[in-house]
């Protein structure tokens, strides 16, 4: 059974965050690289657009987190925590965060994207031209790179899609080149 089908079964074909029933999609929680049921949630377009920053945050929409934060599924709890962190300045989300409990492993995963940090504390990844990189972006290598621990050379002009950011170091991103997962220094890539 596919991950998407399992998520639909798990959630009775409703958004796991707001319970909407139309336009449902699988969302893999960053910085996860593999699609599994344990690191994915089923979300509607409204939630997805706000999660990815395509539309402005609507605090009233996210009042649904009052229920979804108690989900038995850790992936849903993590997404609820992250969205509450983004909204915490509104007051009521901070009250929910004060009630919420995540075990150490889940809390570590929830903090991986820095949602709980102020803008001044966040690690910002920039390409060779100073353009800000985000999880899921596509980049192109600007020079030939030898891959440590292998005889492979990633050639200049190679496209790397769906990158993942290293949330401890602004100089590193991860991506697949010729089917192999590698770490790439940001000064050698250009966002496409």
From TrEMBL:
This is Alkylphosphonate utilization protein. PANTHER family: PROTEIN YJDM, PROTEIN YJDM-RELATED. SUPFAM superfamilies: Prokaryotic SH3-related domain. It comes from the Bacteria. The lineage of its organism: Bacteria, Pseudomonadati, Bacteroidota, Flavobacteriia, Flavobacteriales. SMART domains: PhnA_Zn_Ribbon. Residues 6-52 form the PhnA protein N-terminal proteobacterial domain. It holds the Pfam family YjdM.
């Amino acid at each position: 059974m596919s991950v998407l089908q399992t998520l639909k079964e798990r959630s009775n074909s409703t958004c796991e965050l707001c319970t909407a029933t139309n336009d449902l999609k699988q969302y893999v929680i960053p910085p996860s690289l593999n699609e599994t049921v344990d690191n994915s949630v089923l979300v509607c377009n409204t939630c997805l657009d706000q999660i990815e920053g395509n539309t402005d945050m609507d605090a009233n929409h996210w009042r649904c987190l009052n229920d979804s934060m108690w989900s038995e599924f850790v992936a849903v709890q993590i997404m609820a925590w992250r969205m509450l962190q983004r909204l915490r300045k509104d007051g009521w989300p901070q009250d929910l965060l004060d009630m919420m409990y995540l075990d150490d492993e889940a809390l570590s995963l929830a903090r991986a994207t820095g949602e709980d940090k102020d803008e001044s504390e966040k690690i910002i990844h920039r390409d060779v031209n100073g353009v800000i990189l985000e999880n899921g972006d596509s980049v192109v290598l600007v020079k030939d790179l030898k891959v440590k621990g292998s005889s492979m050379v990633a050639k200049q002009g190679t496209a790397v899609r769906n990158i993942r950011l290293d949330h401890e170091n602004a100089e590193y991103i991860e991506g697949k080149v010729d089917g192999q997962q590698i770490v790439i220094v940001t000064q050698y890539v250009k966002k496409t």
